What does this fold into?
Amino acid sequence: MRDFLLRLVAARSPATAEQPAVQVLSGELAALGFEVTTDDWGNVIGTRRFGPGPVVLVDCHLDTVEVADPQQWSHSPWGEVAGGVVYGRGTVDMKSALAAVVYGASALPAGLRGTIVVAGTVCEELVEGPALSRVLEQVRPDVVVIGEPSANRLMLGQRGRAEVNIEVIGRSSHSAYPEAGVNAAEVMADVITAVRGLQFPRHPDLGPAMIALTNLKSDPYPNVSVLPDRCVATYDRRTVLGESAADVLEPLRELAGGIAGRAGARVDIDLARSEFTTWTGVEAAVESFAPAWCVSATEWPAAHAIRALGAAGLDPRPGYYQFCTNGSASAGRHAIPTLGFGPGDPGRAHTTDESIDLDDLYLGAYGYAVLLRALLAAETDKPALEQL
It folds into this structure.
């Protein structure tokens, strides 16, 4: 398992260029007896069938963020083991989960019921959900497990995410005669100030909805002696359960529209779009809206998973992801019961010297075996978890 993880990390796989990791994952799945296919988007789908019963899909995205400057790393960003720790881009987010679930699932004995599907999905770092949605059109699982890092604790939900562009359209003039124009940047400054005063709902488990300014650009830029006639602000809006795209957009349109109108400007507000081409050549254009999701700790599958993890000696206390995941597709869009579980400290994701302790990796594989066996078992079964 450790060597498999090192090969995955060495297979550099930024979003839209995941083919090296696809080849490593496909080869390992085939060697361990999984049926392996790759779909038109380049997602890897590995299947292990036990017989009639539920279909459990575990999703782990193959893509990683880029390494900005390898010289800043104290260990190789392409895989190095030192002091019981594996270093490298993607060790936490989220190639350790792939290694752990592949070996955890392959260790399960014959005689269970149902089917396990391991999905290595693409382009999650660009936009959460669409690649998994493509897999769900083909597999139709009864339950999904998202393998994002959770320090080997069960996760029951997450806030959603929308990326919103606010564009103010003013009127250019020479900066010596500002009264002849409408300065889009100044109008945007008023909009930004007003957005800070907006109130958002709170969910008892997921926490508060929120908004954060992430980009700001005026046009023309750079310029000399010209009032900008356009200014675009991009906001990251975190949503709670039940909030739709309209719930995100309408308050902003009302607020910004009033400010712009009083200043003699116009405003356009809409969801950002992510446009990309997968490594297989599929061109995609997706609106940036990923719904929040949450499952009950007292109902299947969460209650079953909590009991099994606790009985096996793992931390049974459920939690909630602070970041957005592909669960926005499985639970948020497709209404499939969804859980989260994965090795690694999420605080180490995307960092210089990203790393995972080998003990966490091995515990993650054990946790996946426990979790998958529990989800495949009939309600009357009492699996001998200590045999895993």
